[in-house]
Amino acid sequence: MGTKPGAGQQAVNAALAALAKTGDAFALGQLWEINRGLLRALFWRWYPAHRTLADAHGMTADDFEQEGYFAVQYAAQTYQPEAGSFSNWLGQAMQRQIGRALTGGHRRSVTDADGKQHTVSANPLNHCASLDTPLDEDDSGASTLGELQPDPAAASAMQAAEDAIFQEQLHAALEEALHKLTEREQAVIRGKYYAGKTVRQISEEQSLTIGQVNTAKTSAFSKLRRNPRLMRWREETIQRRAWHGTGFSAWYAGGSVEERTVEHLEIKGIYFAVNAKSVV
């Protein structure tokens, strides 16, 4: 199971995997989301050669994708960059996860139509429960299992409204804090963390020495660290909520998962520095 995403995605994969390994829940979620297409492709490569096995367990593309989340989680925890690309590592992790899902620790042998033997689970995955099943079998008027199922559309609408308010507040706090910096400090912070420029590029564009750029950055972080409005947006909040939905630089136009991921990594750079005890 292999694939060859572009170098840009591989770099993002590696960065997200490193963050996810530290327990960053957002990074893990984004790592899974941007690799969902890859996981689908892996399924349709795997399925034709293992159709009998998959059908015996009721395994569908959706099941495969769900198992893919655990494969991404395992891959992030074990990934070794020196061994190659994350996508290839994920392919191996997916093979491992399929084996675990199909056997579940209770194994038996089956023979397919071609006479090949496979080790499979003794407990198929496709157990079903009717949505009409009453929650209390002794009460004919009791609520059913189906009535407790969430409404994805309603949940999505509520989440979108909540995120819009939250991001508007975060956007305002960041902009207010940045506008309290000097023009030089703003140029350095925006250039380095929003535009991804190097210190040398900033120094050339602003007609500053490298030392002056570093001094401006240190001064800016010192001011941001003491800004009372930014105290609200601690790392845990940023990690779990702020980047769900529209990204910062795509504020008015929306943004793709990849764009939001890059934005998240850029802003985390600011927050790591702002919240650190010292600036390197």
From TrEMBL:
GO MF terms held by the record: DNA binding; sigma factor activity
GO BP term, example: DNA-templated transcription initiation
Keywords assigned by UniProt, alphabetized: DNA-binding, Sigma factor, Transcription, Transcription regulation
Keyword Transcription among record annotations: yes
Residue span of region Disordered: 103-156
Superkingdom: Bacteria
Keyword DNA-binding (UniProt): yes
UniProt xrefs under InterPro entries: RNA_pol_sigma-70_dom, RNA_pol_sigma70_r4, RNA_pol_sigma_r2, RNA_pol_sigma_r3/r4-like
Domain RNA polymerase sigma-70 region as annotated: residue spans: 177-225
This protein's name: Sigma-70 family RNA polymerase sigma factor
Organism ancestry: Bacteria, Bacillati, Bacillota, Clostridia, Eubacteriales
